[in-house]
Amino acid sequence: MSAVPVEEIARLMLSSTNNLTLHTGNIINWNHLKRKTSQNAGEEVLECLSATLNVWSSTVDPSWMNEETNNALVITNPNQMERISEDERSKLKVSVKIFLLKWDPDLVVEAVDQVCNELDIGVVDSVLLALPPLEAEMGEELTVNHILPMWEPMERLYDVERVSAIGTSDLDKEMLEQTHGMARVKPTINQVNVVSCCVIPPDLTAFAKENDIQLLTHSDPRDVLPTPTFQEILRGSSHDDHVDEWQPFWVLRYTVMVKCRGVIKAKGYIVNGRRHATDMPLSVA
Question: Measured between alpha carbons, how far is 92 from 262 in angstroms, rounded to an integer?
């Protein structure tokens, strides 16, 4: 059999899986990103995922053709991978924000486990949870009945000391108050979007102060990785003929900060996507 181009191997690897995780590695040292300080998270995710896929698809190991395949594929940027050593862990603060794109509470634990595995750590210092857009059958307004099932895995992660602090994102005063009142483990952080809310509402500020909740601001888009964007990234980098079968399930952003200096040592994105297909080709003629 003649040698198969690495680009074709990459296409085949994507065609043979229905569960894909992409890890950009540490993007802090990417020179072209340093010049784009005005990028929001959606634009940054798009550029970083595209770059990661391009590097992977041009350097994939041809020995894969002789190996057993499985249903989960992890794609990384090998030049940017940085794990945290035991010696330096106590000097660093690892913060995570999970952007859920599906209403599935199991995805919360999955995302935290993935970042712990990728960074080689046992505990995340803080995790913020951003809920997905409401689906059609869920009504037009977010309620505490939507929030609590997604909050329960956060509580379990706190119980087993996998996470030291847990928080919410984009909850107004009413939703934060109801969640705080009904949750077994209370949120200690709530993020507020400064794009849609230039000034933090006074009632939210007062409630947070009364209940020792830290208010942080952010400018992340509501839908950080729309399905068509994710499919276009895969199409451009892998030339997969079946990209319309793929959907993103969650996006995780992590930052690693040096505690004593307040300097960000590392920042990266991990994204999980899945597809539904019954016929997945494994070889070429």
Answer: 10
